[in-house]
């Protein structure tokens, strides 16, 4: 990926992050908030490139980050320097402490043994959403093909009820709901390739 392409993806992810409740919570308010969103987007995109986890739709208007991971990958020391820089440049200390609490609960809902796929981010630019566009279907098919190819369950969370309904409509199963400290409901979803009703796209 060249520098211009990377810059374009980071700009799009930064735009999309401003619509997501979880990222709105973690990005410290006040000052140059746009710069904080850009820093967070850069961190996410670079991590996705490093882990070969970046998925981009054919028309480049849909972007997702899909990791193959496990509980053992959650090593606090492994990314400590990056995390400290995120605290300084994105969240602030107070937000960081709240994030640690909620992340512990969220991670405990995922498999405690073995590998699984985790959809860390999925966004589609506003003009390309809706039933009459193919971007969502195209990306969903990539997720599910990866799940079938690897034989691994796929996990995702959302704090948007509409998003949760869309996830379920395309094949995810809602397995848990949580009253998030923000006052929202968080929906936990998974896709199981071994379920007989889930056919490989």
TrEMBL record:
It comes from the Bacteria. Gene3D superfamilies: 3.40.630.30. This is N-acetyltransferase domain-containing protein. It comes from Christiangramia sediminicola.
